[in-house]
Amino acid sequence: MPRETSLVTIIGEDSYKKLRSSRCLLVGAGGIGSELLKDIILMEFGEIHIVDLDTIDLSNLNRQFLFRQKDIKQPKSTTAVKAVQHFNNSKLVPYQGNVMDISTFPLHWFEQFDIIFNALDNLAARRYVNKISQFLSLPLIESGTAGFDGYMQPIIPGKTECFECTKKETPKTFPVCTIRSTPSQPIHCIVWAKNFLFNQLFASETSGNEDDNDQDWGTDDAEEIKRIKQETNELYELQKIIISRDASRIPEILNKLFIQDINKLLAIENLWKTRTKPVPLSDSQINTPTKTAQSASNSVGTIQEQISNFINITQKLMDRYPKEQNHIEFDKDDADTLEFVATAANIRSHIFNIPMKSVFDIKQIAGNIIPAIATTNAIVAGASSLISLRVLNLLKYAPTTKYTDLNMAFTAKASNLSQNRYLSNPKLAPPNKNCPVCSKVCRGVIKLSSDCLNKMKLSDFVVLIREKYSYPQDISLLDASNQRLLFDYDFEDLNDRTLSEINLGNGSIILFSDEEGDTMIRKAIELFLDVDDELPCNTCSLPDVEVPLIKANNSPSKNEEEEKNEKGADVVATTNSHGKDGIVILDDDEGEITIDAEPINGSKKRPVDTEISEAPSNKRTKLVNEPTNSDIVELD
Length: 636
Ligand SMILES: Nc1ncnc2c1ncn2[C@@H]1O[C@H](COP(=O)(O)OP(=O)(O)OP(=O)(O)O)[C@@H](O)[C@H]1O
Ligand SMILES: [Zn+2]
Hints:
Layout (H helix, E strand, L loop, with lengths): L2 H9 L1 H8 L2 E5 L3 H12 L4 E6 L23 H9 L6 E6 L10 H4 L4 E4 L4 H14 L3 E7 L2 E7 L17 E2 L1 H5 L5 H18 L18 H23 L5 H18 L15 H5 L15 H21 L11 H17 L7 H8 L7 H18 L17 E3 H4 L7 E2 L17 E7 L1 H6 L2 H12 L5 E5 L4 E4 L21 E6 L5 E3 L2 E7 L8 E2 L7 E3 L8 H9 L2 E3 L9 E3 L6 E4 L2 E4 L31 E2 L2
Parallel strand pairs: 1-2, 1-4, 2-3, 4-5, 10-15
Antiparallel strand pairs: 5-6, 6-8, 7-22, 8-9, 10-16, 11-12, 11-13, 13-15, 14-17, 18-19, 20-21
Helix pairs in contact: 1-2, 3-15, 8-9, 8-13, 9-10, 12-13, 13-14
This protein binds adenosine-5'-triphosphate and zinc ion.
């Protein structure tokens, strides 16, 4: 029986026709993405566009079944499309690129789709696609897995909670300075050995010039930053010893890492005012290692044994280095790389008076990669593809009358909800009233031609928005992408500049807020600037969005019911999120708006530094703290 016949039996002739004329976007062609692609091809979506920025890696092959050994280093999106052609009946369009790249994927490009499937592996891209889905009111099926755990969440903008409605855990990270200068826990030394030392010696291309002035070192101490940079550059010299394959020079590596570098650290007195000073190895320790090193993986051994192990394992890796094209990747299952990281970490721990760890323990910590499991990916992809039929209202026996009747899916283990069942399928929650992305502001898309961007003055732009949505005189306009104040009642310095002169452009998001009303105010509106060269000259079309009047924050007349509604969203007893006991704890930044994870004070006037050259006023003060977590060492 042809596939079409079965599909028509399940969803009916009309729905099948609709499905055949539907276009969907699949973001990510990795673990979940490969499974999903197979599923939605079997469901016979009319068009499937697939975006992935990456190429195929050996480590993907155990679970990304569309890829083979010969595909390594090929783009995932195009390779996936080739792999499914023999059972494909849809139009497939692959793209190799970053979905967040606004020049390749402008907002109007997303408008062609009926639904988006997220099959991503990072928070930033998930947040970005969630925002796009909100701006365009495009349904999104969000998903993710980690080991045996996974989830799938349909998001219907305006009707159900979005990806940002619940707080997300961020991966554990450490400041560079802790890792490179002042470790205090075994994990700091393990991260140093694995992400820094091992990579520099065996995995990186020699450049010999770490001079990244934008790097966030996690410290302002100029002396310490100088030392960190110098230390990195000197490591490239050590790589030359590896390349020389001269084992008699390994003590030079020990000397540099564990005597000279530690002495340089000791010379920065500021570091040791409140910390125990490290004690470098001695020359005799380096030059008289024990003959037989201990090898049991579950014991620690002495520092002398660690030094012997370090020498032996470095020699082994030295021999492998040219055979592996001068590039060895750390892999916790590669005993040599693990041993190197373990001994280097332990010697550093010993120096900093931190307990040493067994190779077994270090394997757990350094290999902190939760294994990706093909079955979990398949289950989550299956749930995503099935729910898309209900999101698009194509199931004749289960019509979608209310979006909050739809279900999400997540593993019980992830939520601690039940030990007895693997998957839970609670109904979707409505949008969280305090969610900065989907609820706190109205939103829409301004369609602009480039010439309009280059010609329109800020003052005219402000008037246009004010009149369109009936805002009062006293408003503020913020560039939400950079958190810059562009206009308010006592900051009009930029009025005569054009939009492009104040660095607004394709993809900028602006926030327009009523600053006047004491009791009632017009709700703030967030507008996405979609610059489209195809548009006729002088186009600046504002979206038809209803921007309601709401009670002001400082209004004394808020009634009890409203207060309850607002507070109710802070702690929502629900079964569909990932908190313990089904309690979702949301951001406690009450009264604050969060855009891209940076809080913006909700108080009335908030001048911000602009990034425009010839900054026109000195009355502006910096409002938002610089992000501090940009360049920090991160475990896998
Ligand atoms: N911004 C982005 N734009 C496009 N594709 C992205 C973006 N961010 C991540 N991806 C893709 O999403 C996919 C996620 O798949 P998955 O979680 O299986 O990761 P992986 O890199 O394939 O495997 P692993 O990380 O487990 O080795 C990857 O193929 C990745 O390239
Ligand atoms: Zn939300």
